[in-house]
Amino acid sequence: MPEPIIHIENVHKHFGRIHALRGISLDVKIGEVVVILGPSGSGKSTLLRCINHLEVYDHGTITVDGTLLKTAKDINVVRREVGMVFQSFNLFAHLTALENLTLAQRKVRKRSKAEAHKVAMELLEKVGIVEKAHAYPAQLSGGQQQRVAIARALAMNPKIMLFDEPTSALDPEMIKEVLDVMLALAKEGMTMVVVSHEMGFARAAASRAIFMDEGQIVEEGKPEKLFSSPTQERTKLFLSKVLQI
Amino acid sequence: MPSDGFFRNLGRVFSKKPPDLAEQSPAPKLDFILGAEPREKLDPWWWLVAVVVLLAVLLMAIKPDPYWNIFLFVRDGLAITVELTAISFVFIIIVGLFGGLGRIAKNPVIHFIATIYVEVIRGVPLLVQLIWWYFAAPVIIQDIGNIIHFDALANYRANPLFLAVVGLVICYGAYMAEIFRAGIQSISKGQMEASRSLGMSYMQSMTYVVLPQAIRVVLPPVGNEFIMLLKDTSLVSVVAVADLTRRGREFMAAHFNPLEVWTLIALIYLILTLVSARFIAWLEKKRKY
Ligand SMILES: Nc1ncnc2c1ncn2[C@@H]1O[C@H](COP(=O)(O)OP(=O)(O)O)[C@@H](O)[C@H]1O
Ligand SMILES: [Mg+2]
């Protein structure tokens, strides 16, 4: 069995008196797509943000691609291997779509202007938005912005992609265009950790679904299994609410 | 730290318009109809500048004695005022930038120093600070020179212009730091996080992502500070700098015509501030993304 590319062991995180993560352990193997779901405030975002050290965990260990985050000399070396997509897109507002994709390639990967440009255009093509290369974020729809954001993360050639509710800020008609991009990415074998309540995506792409509540992993399993026959009461309750919508 | 990239982005913010936006609004051809110029072409407040300039020119043309004579006399003071403002402003921006970064720094020592600086300086009147730098600071320097037996320091003679710049920069830098702090904090945290998640360092993220956006926010208050500074340079006239105000006082002392002297001096300051205000308004309009 291959070494897990993300190894999380007994991680705790406090925000003042809030105990946001209460002993999370989780392994993600290369090429796996893991979907995390759970009620608001259950610690899903915090867990994701701990994986690329945007949040510093208090206790436990997280190893990403062989590097232990706590002792990492240069956290930026880890981060460039871990792409992150946010609920609110967070495109750089003063840069065009193209420039959003080239900035970190130039500054972090030290690519030449021509090379960064080439990679960027290929990725914009891939997410189906190449005609908007010179548009500013404010001129793009939410779905377009999120696709640019995915392309921006991919431009760094990450080994892992983290998605934090990538479609929950989108109008319904735009959700599909973003999920399609994610689906294609999963098919290519990208290692992905996705916080999302999109059951369709989880069924189609995820190798594992994880249900979190109150900072703990309550239950995990194959998506079909978890969704159709959850064993825990909390999972059942949550799924009944989500599936109603 | 605000390295080449910051200034390149600064240039971009001022210079570049999104092509789509520019295409969407073809300027209507109204150039010949008086008062119907498109707003972004001619700032309507330029007429006020024109009126004040005209007034000053008329005074000097119709009554060259004393107005033209006054102007000739205070000319070098006007140059000092403009130079003092320009040089101080450059350093104020730099001090303000670092002060603002210090105010939001996680490092408690840097945060503490920046906060003390801002709080202390903002609590003392500018005039008192200028007097302190001119009369008190040299005493300290001489005392230190005497203690360490270093003649260059012991014989230090106050350089009025230099100490005036120091006083203005230290004082205005504190206010500018607060403007930069607020501007940086107004940029959503997600911008910094997205940048960090791509592997860019804190400084890279500040330089290429946060500050270029903050410029847009801070430009109006920074412009305000510039105009306040321009006017406040008149205070340096009490610490031996021969600026516009001091030259006016010298002329009045020699010719006893306060009405003419101070009317003209006031008009000159007014022209400087009005032109600056128009220029700032033009900059604000120009950089939009
Ligand atoms: N920066 C923060 N400061 C204080 N509390 C936080 C912060 N981020 C998250 N929390 C708290 O931690 C808990 C988990 O939050 P989060 O991970 O965002 O949950 P989820 O993403 O599952 O909705 C919540 O109670 C939330 O209020
Ligand atoms: Mg969340």
The secondary-structure element order of chain B is HHHHHHHHHHHH
Structural class of chain B: mainly alpha
Largest sheet of chain B: none
> Helical region count of chain B?
12
Notes on the structure:
The complex is a heterodimer of chains A (245) and B (289). Chain A has helices spanning 44-51, 75-79, 97-107, 113-126, 142-154, 172-187, 199-205, 223-228, 233-244; strands at residues 4-15, 18-29, 33-37, 59-64, 67-68, 82-85, 160-164, 191-195, 208-213, 216-221. With 245 residues, chain A is α/β, with parallel strands linked by helices. In chain A, strand 4 and strand 5 form a beta hairpin. In chain A, helix 3 packs parallel to helix 5 (142-154), helix 4 (113-126) packs across helix 5 (142-154) and helix 5 (142-154) packs parallel to helix 6 (172-187). Chain B is flat. By secondary structure, chain B is mainly α. Helices cover 76% and strands 0% of the residues of chain B. The longest helix of chain B has 37 residues, at 67-103. Residues 1-39 of chain B have low confidence and may be disordered. Chain B has helices spanning 4-15, 19-24, 46-62, 67-103, 108-122, 126-147, 151-154, 160-185, 189-197, 202-232, 244-255, 258-286. Chain B starts with a helix and ends with a helix. Classes of the chains: A alpha/beta (245), B mainly alpha (289). Chain A binds chain B through residues 52, 54, 76-77, 79-80, 82-84, 86, 88, 90-94, 96, 103-104, 107-108, 134-136, 138-139, 149, 152-153, 156, and chain B through 9, 12-13, 18-21, 188, 190-191, 193-201, 204, 208-209, 212-213, 216, 289. The complex binds adenosine-5'-diphosphate (ADP) and magnesium ion. Residues 15, 18, 20, 38, 40-46 of chain A line the site of adenosine-5'-diphosphate (ADP). Adenosine-5'-diphosphate binds next to strand 2 and helix 1 of chain A.
Present the secondary structure layout.
The complex is a heterodimer of chains A (245) and B (289).
Chain A: E1 4-15, E2 18-29, E3 33-37, H1 44-51, E4 59-64, E5 67-68, H2 75-79, E6 82-85, H3 97-107, H4 113-126, H5 142-154, E7 160-164, H6 172-187, E8 191-195, H7 199-205, E9 208-213, E10 216-221, H8 223-228, H9 233-244
Helix pairs in contact in A: 3-4, 3-5, 4-5, 5-6
Chain B: H1 4-15, H2 19-24, H3 46-62, H4 67-103, H5 108-122, H6 126-147, H7 151-154, H8 160-185, H9 189-197, H10 202-232, H11 244-255, H12 258-286
Helix pairs in contact in B: 1-10, 3-12, 4-5, 4-8, 4-11, 4-12, 5-8, 6-8, 8-10, 9-10, 10-12, 11-12
The structure holds adenosine-5'-diphosphate (ADP) and magnesium ion.
